[in-house]
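Entry 14. Two folds queued back to back today. First construct below, sequence then structure tokens.
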Amino acid sequence: MARDRQPILKKCKALGIDPAVMGVNKNTKRNPKPNRRKVSEYGIQLNEKQKLRFIYGILEKQFAHYFELAEKSNGQTGEVLLQLCECRLDNVVFRLGLASTRREARQMVVHNHFTLNGKKVNVPSLQVKVGDVIGVTEKTRGSDKMKAIRETRGAVPVPKWLDMDKDKLEGKVVALPTKEDLDFEVDELLIVEYYSK
């Protein structure tokens, strides 16, 4: 299994992402100088694609596959691509507040800490659908992390396309996500243009 071991802050600076999107608290006193190089149109499109890939932790081959699926489906390609990325199981776990970062959510899914519709799952890229219920396994419910999540009810805002029951540590997908539900800025049209060449 391939893993992304790039330094988060360095990559955030290169792609122009706020480190808070990645779950990193940046406590440095000096502000980094912005990159002042002139970037071509292709470079802007590539940067937008790399930014989306980095945020969701998706490798190139899988991201290209998501684009092919989005292109074949009904609806606007860019919006469907964002839906495919947002509906990954590891991202849903993160958005429900059951993990502090997407990377942590991915690791927790791989280590069998979650169930999907009552069955244990360990595939982070699994696509969730409307009506699916994501829960925490019985063994994990007693952990210190899950106790802390129960105590801090409402601390993490859950997007409107998800419904979270903090007492049961269970979340439900009530609708498909839209671009407005994202917790970062992205221009999906640039990504569509990049792959259309």
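Second construct, same run, same settings:
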Amino acid sequence: MAENKEVLLHVSHLKKYFHVSGGTLKAVDDVSFDIYKGETLGMVGESGCGKTTCGRTCIGLYSRTGGEVLFKGVDPETLKGKERLAYKKAVQMVFQDPCSSLDPRMTVAEIIGEGIDIHHLAKNKKERAEMIYKQLELVGLNREHANRFVHEFSGGQRQRIGIARALAVNPEFIVLDEPISALDVSIQAQVVNLLIELQKKMGLTYLFVAHDLSMVKHISDRVAVLYLGSLVELTTSQELYDHPLHPYTQALMSAIPIPDPEVERKRDQEKIRLEGEVPSPIDPPPGCRFRMRCKYATAQCAAEMPALRDVGDGHWVACHCVK
């Protein structure tokens, strides 16, 4: 399946550690995956598992502790001058919290127009204004919003401004960090459908970080599951939801609510309930990091960290119990 696809982002043995008072926090520890041009890779896991840190490190917002990241075959950290600027145009990010990622002293037009100015995308003021209006309309806002400030908008509207800012420079790859978490449930699907439409129209590639597993299934071609900084499963969206192999993934899938009270009531007894707490990323247990909460754990799980391996048809899993 992957042989005929162009790899846009190659991540190999990526590590990102933070030095904290209690020791070294291993936020991302030996994670490897590829993202193909034009696809959406969903990234899921519990809070604190390293999803956001992984996304930020992949595009250079955090300097990596170890490993390799190649964008179109080139390490972004080696780029300088015009090549570095071109890379920054090609790669954008939509942050989870629009309140902290949008400057409250700037108007919406200034926020969206900043990238247009830096990369000299508009020939004159009139063209610049039209480009800004176009981005606002793309994300469901009006051109009248251009001269307002961020504090005048709701949380959902602020997030759409963040999406418009990312799209304004015509990027190739966007890291979407919980892009719909600030939106009302009634418009979440609209925004996700908009992202899908824009992807088809503009040839975009996404890394979609989220907690909402049902929405991840809707937008993602493949899904990567992280646990305590490590990648435990990676496969196509449909395969992951139909046949989750890792015990942690199975627990996540069983927790997805079904909008039918009768079905949900019957299914409640079948839900997999994880016991115990997530270990500290500062001092993770030896061997498999999930073994303390896994009912299938063996002596091998305690002694040896399972390697991520292909068990067939591009379905990757890191578990000693999966044959």
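Quick look at the second one. The two ends are 22 Å apart (CA to CA). The chain has a mean pLDDT of 89.
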